[in-house]
Structure formats: C-alpha cells, structure tokens
Structures
1.
Amino acid sequence: MSDSLPAPPPEEPVPTWARDYLRVIGISVFAVLFLTLLIGLAGTGLLRKNIATDPVAGDGLWAGICAGLLVLLFPFLFFEQARRDSGFRRSGLVPLLLLGILTVSVIGVLAMMTWPFILGDRAMPGTVAAELTTDPAGIFLVLLFLLAATAWNTCLVMNMIIFGWKGALVLILPFLGMVFLIEFAGINIFENPPSTTGILLWGALALVGLVVLGVFGALRNVIDRPPQQATEAERAEFTSLYWEERNRYGHGDGMRLPGIDSHQPPQPTPSPQPTPSQLPPRPSQPPRGPQPQQPPRGPRG
C-alpha cells in the first residue's frame, strides 16, 4: 500500500518561443498571399460580390481594404483555445509580439509592392496604390501604417482573449470601432498620395502603440495571474491529512470511498469509555433488610 497520493497527470508543455514565432509568421505569409490573390481576382474581374452583381472593382479602395484585413487578422494568429495561456505565452511574450509585428509588417509591404502591377490602370496615378513599387515615401507610409494599426489592434484583441468572455463583452464595441478606423485609414492611404503629415502621424502612432503593447505584454502575468501550484510541504501536509481521514474510518487499504477521498473538516473525537478498573468498587453482597419474624409453632398432635 502506498503512503502518498498519486501524482497528478503532467500538464501539456508550453510550445517553445521559436515554435510560436514561426507559426505566426507562417500563417501571416499565407494570409498575405491570399490577399494578393484577392487583388489579382479583382483586377481581372473574376471576384464578384455574388453571381448577379457587378465584379469587385480592383482599385485603390480594394487595396486599402485588403491591407486593413491583414492588420485585423494578425492578433488572432496567436489564439489557441487548447492552451492554458490561450496562445499568449507567459514568458517571452513582449519580444514575440514586437518581433512578430515588425516581421509581418515588412512581409506585408514587400507583398503590397507587387499590387500596382496587378491593379494596372485601375489605380489612380499618383496615389499610393499606383506608385507603391517605386515611391519610397509611399513604402515608408504603408510600413508605418501596418506597424501602428497592428500594435493598437493587438493590444485590444489580446486583452479580449486574456479576460475571457467578460473582457470580450466589455471590449466588443471598442473592437468594432477599431475595425472601422483601420479599414477607413487603409482606404485613405491607398487612394491618396503620400504626405509628410501622414508619415509623421503614423510614425507617432506606431511608436506609442508599440510602447503600450510592450507594457501590456510585460503585465501579462499581472492581468491574468497563473494558477498557484502546491509546494512540497503543502502536498505532504495534505497527504498526511488524507490518510488520517481514511484510517479514522478503518479504510487504509487505498480503496476510494465517497466523501472521504476529498479533504473534510476534522470530526469531533468521541470521549473514551471508562475501563473496568476505573469503575467504583461494587460490594460483594447486597445489604440485607430486616427479616420478617415467624410465628411460634405449637406442639404437633
């Protein structure tokens, strides 16, 4: 018979930092290629809202919408429901977020530099959508837009996931507002020529957004505290109480009993019964009362 509780089943190990990084980058590359395919289908007139309507116009507006979709998708690439940390790891989260955003933004800009060739004459001349391949100011503006919008969107979505359904319920309206702002900003950038004001504005938003994201990532274990694990001393004390509870009922053979296998408050100890030696002495013979007198007997005839 074992004198200790069976060890709990081992928890699923948290994936390595490199695995999480490569997973996010891999899915992001697939998403960028898919968005580029949508640009190509719209440019050839094959992309339609439905069969009976006109095809989607492959112009700067559609390019801005696709750029915003990449930003909105990024934070959801971390989410894994089967993991206890929901995909936002408790160690190394800040460098994972910052490096992931920078890498995906660079990959996104490189892919978007091919969009002017796909859009062709549908993009208005002089706009970012038409000149992104050859205009350094347009390239820099799009990069800053991706960095800023992705950082702020990740801050919001990360807290929605960490806090669970309650956090999602509270932040659902800010998230919908974020979706509108990102799509509106993307359309505005791709349908207009780059400007110094836009570069300064998105540069400041990118810098502040990355700092705020780093702060939220550093406070990951404060916002959502990890479950505490019992120490060896606490486990030994629990084991001792466990077997005391079993032995009190005469079941120390390891059989599981309902209501006993879980820790219960100690029961009051019954008072001991007195032993025969502690009883008062008993007299050898009971005391006799007065005897009734017999009448005298006469002579027998």
Note: The CA atoms of residues 61 and 237 lie 67 Å apart.
2.
Amino acid sequence: MNDDLRAEPDLDQPAVFKPRRKPRSKNWLAYQIALGIILGGSVLWTLATLISFAAARLLLGQWQVTVPGLTH
C-alpha cells in the first residue's frame, strides 16, 4: 500500500474564490409557471385567430383550394 499519499495544496497557483451568486427568490418557480401560461396562451390565441381567418377566407370564396385530380 502507499502510505505516503496525502492531499497537499497547490501553492503554485493562488486560490481563486468565486463570489456566490445571489440566491433566487422563493417565487422563481411560480414566475416561470406564470410566464409559461401567458406565453402558451398567447401562442394558442394567435393560432386560433389565424385558423379562423383562413376558414373565413375559404368560406367567403376569397381563397380557392384546388385538389389535383378532383374536377367538378
């Protein structure tokens, strides 16, 4: 066995201590959840508006959809 193994500090390089980061507030998770709900709701509202717009344009006949091979 190696009985001479010891942990020695490295004196060639000075120790650099990083300052601790400010701890996050206790409500950080609540803020993240609220932001996700707001952004998700905004995206869903935008998609619903675009789908409604496209459906209205199709129903009013301002857009025409042609399917190859289908004739009337």
Note: The first helix runs from residue 28 to 60.
3.
Amino acid sequence: MPNEGHVGASVANGSAELRLVWREDRYALVFTHEGGELRSVPSDQFDTPVFTDAHQQGELLFASGAEGARQWSMSVEPYEGGFLLDTACRVTKPVDRAAASCFDGEGWGVGSVERDDQPPRISRDASASRLEAVPDEPSAQPYTVRYRVRVVAAAGER
C-alpha cells in the first residue's frame, strides 16, 4: 500500500494539472491551476470511486479498484482547458446507494460531455464548492454504468 501523499500518476494540460494522490486507502484526484484546487471526496450519500491502482501511458492516466459489490475503472486525458474523465463501475450484487463522483474545491467546473447518450446529472451545493456527477443506474444486476465528465478551469481563471 502506498504511503499517504504518494503521487501515483500526474498529467498537465497547460497550467492545469491532475495528480492521483494516495489518501487513506485510495487514490484521490487533485486538480490544480493558479486559480484554484478541486479534489475528489467521499460522500455520505453516494458510493464514490475507489481507485487503488494507478498508472500512466504518456498523457493518459488509468486507475482501477474495487469495494464491496462495485468494481471501478477510469481513464483520464487532457481536454479543452482541463481533463476528460471516463469512469465505469461494474455492479455485481444489489447496492444501497447510487454511484457518483464527488468533488470539493473552487476555481473549476464539472460538466457532461456533448453527444453522450446518457450524461450524468451534475449538481453543485449551496456553498458552490461541492460538485456531484451522478449517472443513471439500472436496477437489475449485474450491470455496468459508464459516465464521462469534463473537469475544466473555471472561465476567467485559466
């Protein structure tokens, strides 16, 4: 198991950078640029991705992991002022909570990707620092849910 703070992989896109940083028992996504920082965070409401393995091939980052009935995988690539996250979750047994990617921070925006058939619901809390991307999930198991989100430096802060 990596030490706390270990960087498993990182990629830059202009002044924006994404690092996969070991926190407690998994890799967290940490996005930075001169205007702010955004971090992936756990949630009391949703099952969030668990990434325990990370590797890099050039500008592409890959992460995977599992917890309970969920098996997670993600690829990340530079994308128009930020990054494109392509996340998949395989569910093998009934689960109590929906899957979601949750982020906390400022100076970044999270949005769905054009031309996706079923983009995730994107919401921001009242403090404007918490962002959630929630895909629709079928009810019968097993199934795989896949969702893509753009994470970009907020307008005027790139």
Note: Residues 7-153 form one domain.
4.
Amino acid sequence: MNFKRSGRPTSIHMKKLLAAFSMAALCVSAFAAGADELFPNNKFRAYQTYEALGPAATIGGRAIYKGGRNWQIADLADFVNNMNVMIGRVILVSPHNGEYFLEMAITSSMSSGSEDGYFSANVCNPAIPHALRVNKVSGHNDNCLIVSHQTRSIYNQPVPGLQVIVRNSKSNWRLYEVRLFINLALVGFPNSTPEEWNSGGVEKDPARRQFVDNMEKWARALQSGVDSAIDYSKPAQAFGAVPDIETVFKPLTAPVGVAAVRYGKTPNTSIDYVYCPALERMIDSAQETCR
C-alpha cells in the first residue's frame, strides 16, 4: 500500500482545523466550568455524605469560599420560593484531626423569579448580641456581616462557638448567604459563654478583644467576596482576596478538661437547616422558629 504525503494544509483547511480546535477547547472549558457544579439544572446532584468538596465547586454557578481548608459535603438541598425562584443550600464540614472544627452553610439563589423582586431579612438587627457587626446596606438590598456566639449540639455534646454570617441580596432575586461556625475550644477559648462574646464581654478581655480585631479584617474581606460572588458575572475568583481561615482561626488540640467532639460515620442529624419562607432565609430549626 502506498501513502502520499498530503503536504501543508491550505489556508482554508487550516482555518477549519483551528475552528475545530477552538470549538473543542470551548467544550472542554465549559465542561470544566460545570464539572463541579453542586446544582446542575438547579437541582442538587447525587453525592455521598462527607465526600470531598471539589476545588472548583460552585453553587448555582457562583464561587464558594474554601479558605485554604479541605471541606466535606454534609448535605445538599434545593428549594423553590413563592416566586418560583430556585434556591440551593450546601452544608460543609471541615474537621481538625477528626474533631469538629468548622461547619459552613451556603445558600444561593439559582434562578430569577416570575417578576423582579428581592429577598429581605433583618439579620443585622443591632438588638442581636454580637461580637462584630458591619451593616453596609439594608432594605431592598442587604449587605450584612454579623458575628455572634452560638452553642450547637453536635452528637449530643454542647459545642460553644462563633457564627459568622454574611448575607447579601440584590435585585432580580439574587441571594448569597454564608454561615460559618467555628468551634471556639479549638481556637483557644474553651467553655465560652454568650456574655463573653457580646460587645461588652469582648471589651472586658484583652485576648478576646485582640481576637475579634484580628478577625474583623478577614471577615470584612469575606463580606466583599460575597458581594463579588453575587454579581451577574459570577466571577470564579470572587474570594481570591480573602485570607485563608487559619490566618484567624488556627486550630489547636482541644485543651485538657474539654471533651473533644469526634466525627461519627453517620451524618449529624442535629443540624437541620431549612428554608423559611416567612424570613426568606435559611434557619437552623434547632435554634430558631420559622415565623
């Protein structure tokens, strides 16, 4: 059998080849962009409890803050509000040496409503006891950061911690909310109480005051990252300027006398975030009533 060398492709053939390569690259890029979407077609994908969160994971196409930590998926859920807006929620956990350390719930709208509108909530109410509060916008649009003390029941053990809430809502039913819970025992504050972590209690203790001061710069950067993530363009690097979590919350071994909260092989059923239509946000049903 004889083979004939075809020679250099003509300019027309070259254009066709380049077009084909460009199309293939676009397809690969599109696949890569959507490969880690937690809610393809606005419905949560199949997952295994405590499976690793992918490095490029998104929620409704929006970036997820990972803060230099490895995260595991504890739960995925999707909802529809009364304006037919699709809402996605993911609960993530990040243990330290097998101990309960970080938990993060992210809620995001994933579609537009049947008519223009907005979400509203009074998350930054100054009457709520808090260690830190930054309310940039409230009303039709929300851009709120609040840090307050909370005690969770994790595997039937009380775990005092700080909850960082960043909530952002804008026109056309856009919503992005981050709720990050930090086990205070693992960052040097065991057996903490709510009174120690309100604004008055923080001022009474230099160590807590320094801790909150250090946390504020990070928290404000996270608030700016959420504001970027909710943009129509959905930038992949929305949280690129946010420092890693351990720049503020450096995990330690649980102090002597403090029971370490170990992870089990089954999901923690005490955590039950649900969408509350009356409040137009996610709530922890063990801590708050939907009304």
Note: The chain has one domain: 11-284.
